[in-house]
């Protein structure tokens, strides 16, 4: 790893997440790190190509599945805090692929996000929503899992199964491969965007951090590649045709946008300008950042990734405010007490000021 480089881990969580990661990992660029986590030992056995595997909650399910019960999935994750902390030790960004609506993925995702936040790792969740034909109960569980996840995840990209499927009466295998390509393009594109150093205008981790702090946990992404003489026009059209782009309205309405462009030594300024002008939000006040990287492997090819915020709000928690132990130190960094406490001494317990609301001390994001 290059000195100063940020460590990124892609985690497949639950049955759906493990299956997707096990299929995309063998074709991923060299240097990407993958891991899988589930309570079902049979699922993990199918991920034999992934070296980093974590069997969660053996004492809860005895190596079996959660049976579709979210509370069982949550308890499995709670029983695996220490091993999971060891798994993500030193990780700066955790990219999690998880299916909501099931037991382990839906129940464990918020626990995983909370643990990652506590150890200082940022999280982006690629969540898969059930088909409509799976019924209201399953979809209700998915929405319940999403609501819990929003309290701790830095960003959530919602991907409906129905949107990931090719048009027409596609074969089951073709549908799965299409979904895999969408996920792979997203996680690989984001990884490449943050790890490439041979760029004209690199996007660093601090830029992504700004996006994550302000997007209120809701994001969309679109990615595409194109070759040939008309590659700029072709890649723009492919970005607009992406299943999550809604014909480009996601870009135009976005209050915040990150655009990463990768090309070879033949990348032209006119192509960069055309791409940026096509995806740039209509509102001039929108927060927009761009990254341009060159790679000899992309000769005659352009690859673009767009990460769009659906909301843009000032964070309720100031990540720059460090909660440090000691009453004297605390008094120097915290705001003065409100008059409601009558100037009484602060209540300090285990280095924490209990007069500060829990959601601030634990950096929990409240629903808006």
Automatic annotation (TrEMBL):
Gene Ontology BP term (one): cell division
SMART domains (alphabetical): Tubulin, Tubulin_C
Lineage: Bacteria, Pseudomonadati, Kiritimatiellota, Tichowtungiia, Tichowtungiales
Positions of the Tubulin/FtsZ 2-layer sandwich domain: 201-317
Protein name: Tubulin/FtsZ GTPase domain-containing protein
SUPFAM superfamilies, sorted: Tubulin C-terminal domain-like, Tubulin nucleotide-binding domain-like
GO cellular component terms listed in the entry, alphabetical order: cell division site; cytoplasm
Domain annotation Tubulin/FtsZ GTPase: ranges: 7-198
GO molecular function annotations of the record: GTP binding; GTPase activity
InterPro entries the UniProt entry points to: FtsZ/CetZ, FtsZ_C, Tub_FtsZ_C, Tubulin/FtsZ-like_C, Tubulin/FtsZ_2-layer-sand-dom, Tubulin/FtsZ_GTPase_sf, Tubulin_FtsZ_GTPase
PROSITE patterns referenced in this protein's UniProt entry, alphabetically: PROKAR_LIPOPROTEIN (PS51257)
Stored PANTHER family: CELL DIVISION PROTEIN FTSZ-RELATED, MITOCHONDRIAL DIVISION PROTEIN FSZA
Keyword tags: GTP-binding, Nucleotide-binding
